[in-house]
Amino acid sequence: MTPPSGARPEGVGRPVGRPLPNWTPRPRPGRDVLQGRYCRLEPLDAARHAEDLFTAFSEADEGWTYLPYGPFGDCDGLRTWLEDMSRHEDPLFFAIVDREGRAVGLASYLRINPEMGSIEVGHIHYSRPLQRTRAATEAMYLMARRAFDELAYRRYEWKCDDLNAPSRRAAERLGFVYEGTFRQDRIYKGRNRDTAWYSITDAEWPAVRAALEAWLDPSNFDEHGVQLTRLSIPE
Which spans in the chain are helix H? Predict the structure, then answer.
């Protein structure tokens, strides 16, 4: 069929995305230690981390509310679950270890898509001793830095239950941009979950990285460990 006079042929002149002529799939993250100043992230090892994590999590069981598993009634139950999780490549779990060598939290990479250069951080569970500390922020910085600076991913995602206000505040504080909410996204623990989506792109990462590094610098804290300047990510 001949198009009407002046009509644009199908597909011609339509907006298209930014060309990526040199794009190649990215490496998958490995089981390597991420070393920071205030903490380190170790590949999850049930034998090494279970007792510390059980002790740390017993102080704040409410942290399991928005996770599809837990809480665990005893250390053996947690250890069995950690053993299972430690075998996975996606999610790829890490234990967050403080400067005293104690495992005090969990986090993972997941939904790892090397072909598209997209990776998510999730399954985050911070014990009470880890919450609102420099180590808590640094752990997220270390994981983002590996994704962007070492592995050259294009997109770094954060997703959480829309009702999980602390997680939403944490995402925004760390520089993630809210993208929308997937309504009735899933069911867990017998409840509906609407899922809030956040992301940082590779173009946004340099400004986010600079703000995080400035906040984490020891000079930003007084002799009592109190921050002198709040973390602020440029818009």
Answer: 46-57, 75-85, 134-145, 165-173, 205-216
Q: Going from the N-terminus, what domains does the chain have, and what CATH number goes with each?
A: 34-218 (3.40.630.30)
Asked if 109 and 151 touch (Cβ cutoff 8 Å), the reply is: no
Instruction: Give me the amino acid identity at 194.
Output: D
Q: How far is CA 32 from the centre of its chain?
A: 16
User: What pTM value is reported for the model?
Assistant: 0.92
Residue pLDDT tens, the chain, 235 long:
555 555 555 556 788 899 999 999 999 999 999 999 999 999 999 999 999 999 999 976 677 999 999 999 999 999 999 999 999 999 999 999 999 999 999 999 999 999 999 999 999 999 999 999 999 999 999 999 999 999 999 999 999 999 999 999 999 999 999 999 999 999 999 999 999 999 999 999 999 999 999 999 999 999 999 999 999 988 7
DSSP letter string, 95-125: EEEETTS-EEEEEEEEEEETTTTEEEEEEEE
